[in-house]
Specification:
It contains ten helices and nine strands. The chain is of the alpha/beta class and 289 residues long. Helix 1 (10-36) packs antiparallel against helix 2 (41-50). The longest helix has 27 residues, at 10-36. The relative contact order is 0.15.
Length: 289
Amino acid sequence: ALALPPSTTGTAILVQLAERRLLLDVMNTAAAQLSSGKLDLGPIDTLLSDYSAPGVMKSMSDMFAKGLPPEPTGIPLKSLPGLTSSIGGMHGIWAIAGEPKVGKSTLAWQLALDVGQTIPVVYYDFENGFATIAHRLKEVFGNDVDRLRRGTERIYYRDSIRSLDSDLSHVAPPALVVVDSLQKLPASVEFHREGIVKWVHRLEALKKRGYSVLEISEISRANYGDVRPFVGIFKETGEIEYSADVGAQMTRFSDNETHFHIVAHRHRNVSGRVAVLQRHHSWWFRETQ
């Protein structure tokens, strides 16, 4: 039972209850870590950052008393100006699907390098491995290691996402989180689809904290060779397109040409093919129209 003075208001009671719940969650998280013998400040930091004490309710009119907040704007993609113009730049959650070898990882790294000129990028790569990525990036930068180092100063590479909470405790928003790919996220074999759904919701929550998210997705084998993009193309679960601000599909037109289609856009009335991408070399795209 709470021992509160008679003068305590209802709001104060709610604040104390919320703080006690938070303390209990922190204690349970710390106890689990103590039991495992592994310290990870990430989950505790997430609990603290998500905490919001109950306060006085304000009408939206009151919230506009000092004017409108700045309009959300996307980060321009300098290497892909046409895509920036059509979609509005990197903002919120992007989900990009496509067949194997269509260039999803190539485009993801190109977007990361563009965004990394402005804000930090945390790249979770389950497809390639650091040595492979390093040599691909060396090719992108013309075999100039000094340019490569300057171009990746704000990019952080991980081959496991289990350190997500800890990583983001060191990389504050605004920042971009890249997951390549969703279907390779850790989940049980028996309940793989349910595991992917939980990860999608977890990544969606990052947007509320000020992060942007780029999700790379596979498509079902039954859709291989289908060049008619549609919103249900994402493999495993419809939660991917439901959570995304921008849903896109890459289709192969020829060995050297890939088409980029918008299948869903939460904030703009845009759909269909918005860019034709041609490989400049193995690991870089240029727009041709």
